[in-house]
Sequence to fold (957 residues):
Amino acid sequence: MVLKNNQRTLVFLLSSIGLITFPHFWHIPLSIITFFYALLLWRFIGIWKSHWLPHKIIVLLIMLGGIALLLNHFRSFLGRDAGTSLFVIALALKLLEIKKDRDLYLICYLAFIVASSQFLFGQSMLMALYILLVCCALFTSLIIINSQQSKPVVAIKKSATILAQALPMTLVLFFLFPRIQTPDWVFLNDTNTNAITGLSDTLDPGSITSLALSPELAFRVKFENNNIPPPRQRYWRGPVYSYTDGKRWTESQQYINPSYMDTPKYKGKAYKYTLLLEPQIKNWIYTLDMPAQFSSGLYKNPRHQLLTQKQSNNRREYQLVSYPHYNTGYITKAEFRENTQLPYPASQKIITFIKQLKGFNSSPEDFIKTLLDYFRTEDFYYTLKPPLMKQKPIETFLFENRRGFCSHYATTFVYLMRVAHIPARVIGGYQGGEFNSIGKFLEVRQADAHAWAEVWLENKGWTRVDPTAAVAPERIERGVDINKQIAQGLVNFMSINNSNAYSWFKKSHQLLQSLDYNWQRWVIHYDTGNQANFLSSLGIKNLKIMLYWMMGLIGFITLCLTIYLFKNNDTSIDKASFYYQKFCKKLAKVGLQRQPNEGANDFYTRISQRFPTQKHQFKVITALYNQQRYGKQPTKKVLQQLQKTVNQFKIKVNIK
Amino acid sequence: MQTTLNNLVNAANQIILGKEAQIRLALCCLLSKGHLLIEDIPGVGKTTLSHTLAKLLGLNYQRIQFTSDILPADIIGCSIFNTEKHEFSFHKGPIFNQMILADEINRSTPKAQSALLEAMEEQQVTVEGKTYQLSTPFFVIATQNPNHQIGTFPLPESQLDRFLMRIELGYPDYKAERSLLMGENRQQLISCLKPQITAEKLALIQKNCAKIHASSPLLDYIQAIINYSRESADYNEGLSPRAGLGLLTAAKTWAFMENRDAVLPEDVQVVLPAVAAHRLKHGSTNAEEIVAPLINKVAIP
Fold:
């Protein structure tokens, strides 16, 4: 059994292991977590009641039970979840057979693996901090195991020092060492446990309402030179819904040949920005209307939407340039057909309505203006909880309820345009975003999801029209107050004057968000591309030069340290020790080991008893050593004499 | 000078039989200008040892028997009204001797203990606003009974720390015991002892002891010992800086007594139990056991 004074070590080790596994509570099956903590508790009790610990055979049975539990859940040992569970079970079982110090080391290393496996599930900054703290506890356990007598407080200090010392090196290696991209075939996330929300590929009246209550982050945008567009230009363009069956709007499946299309012309101010997109359901990229330049790996479809090649479960960063003023030029026949599509002929009621607004015989611009005025002046309401409109949704909305959300206004508007033979389509995306004044970036959340219309006009091309702005201009100008909206379940916009306490809350929230943004950008999302940018900002253009720099730097530091160490030590004293060690090594060969706490004179007495014939030689060497190392004035002459005598010294073993 | 010291030790050996190591340590303590505490059960020769040393060093000395009702004035002295001169005159107490034998110091109350201990630290006493210098050299040899015995007031740590060394005598071995039983009366022998050293020579020796060289590896060793006592779980509290200084001084004197001009780690190891044990809190009461981790686990650099 383990030594008695190891009890404290065990208490420390077991507690830190308990803490390490704790975050897995959210990731691996409850039964396995229970299994783990039950065994941990057993082992904990076993510290004081060692006879309660299980016998070998029982441990074997428990092991079989653990494997059965694992197989029952996953039917395999492979994959992220099963693999992690396997390690957790192994750690628990190893706890039951602590016999030697070696087992303690093994447990520590297993615990390190379990700790790092947390990062397969989430990489938030708080989790990283937690793991760092717990690893500090684990280091402390290792220190206590290695120096049995150490006080825990001293050991904690020491492990904190070790971690602090390791930190600069870690940072240098992290930022400078060539990044290795994970190959695509490594599937660490075997099941996507986080339910991702976002816009879907069908737009029905309720689909955006469900997002309006989600505070989840959609993406964050950092503008170059803090050149941020005003709120009414913050339209983040996403999917284009141009096909309707009368109730739902979806993306059109028709093929449009881009070579027939006009090249868009961009005017005015360009906005350069970095988009940090949260994991998405789709391969859509949300861009400031209208994107002109984009990073490689993206492509623009004929409907001016940016897409990635593949859908990805990870956060991604993109460099983009957008112009709020643009002209897409002429419309192709295919586009015209697609964007005037109607499921069935419009009803008499609708046609009469359009006739009333002179939709058929005035210019499209005038009709748009009249229609928006109509929305503004008649009693239309912007609400999160519109009544259900199952049959003929457009007519019900237009003539009966007059209460709706952005999708209602956008779809109705586009429908009316199409009936009046004007090409129009619904655009999904986000509008607004909250400016984080600490991190100087825009945060766009799911609650900012929005739908608006695009109309094709002669000489202007595709033009953005937002009917919601006519009904609720504050939605566009001020943005959504997400916290209130969620709390009340009603539409809420940002108020202009915030109370003091509220702004404090807001500030701290922004600070956290800003920290998280930088964490995502600089740590989680630090890949080859980022590294290249970072290094080139330091003036390092390619990897080879950087490696030379690194080697040069390390060499230089080593050299400085060596010189410092050599200069700081009186070498002649140290050499005396060196030769004396040599002398001791010669004696160690015949079994006379000098103890670390044994003085030279004591050692002399001991060896003289064993080899009385060489007593004189021993005496000379001991005297020279003491004189050189502890004497008043160490001299070169004495040192040389010591060197000579030690080199000449040989043990005469008497063979009897 | 070393011959003088050896003669002194030999003479003491004639009185206290079979305790050469303790005699040398006691001498080392006095040469280091430190105060000495002898702790043991009654009747093993504590008082005899202190008398012998005082006599051999040629110092004027007085014994103060500490009892539970002793008062500070009994130690320091007091002012008495002189009827002829019509004024108070100060009558010096036993503390104004070169050597004080404070017998059974832990039998008195803390008040009286502190009177003596103050004098030990300051080398002076203040009575009724007037400060009196104590004689030089000034040594205190205190004896105390083990704290588990009846009628003892243990010295607090702060006061224990003022004694440079604490030694234990222990029972004599068989041969020494027999010689003791066969020999003369010890009191008579002591009264016949002649001083082996003059006051000037004593001062010179003390001066020379302080001049012994301590190299930087040796100081490293002493610091390693102190650090170990502070950081290891073996002790609740580590050695104080005063203890460190005492250790170095005692090791220097020991090296001088061994006729060397530099301190070796062995010197430190020899004086360590006497210097450090009474300043450390430890389960054991045996000095060797208390410092065993310091000697065994701290490597000599």
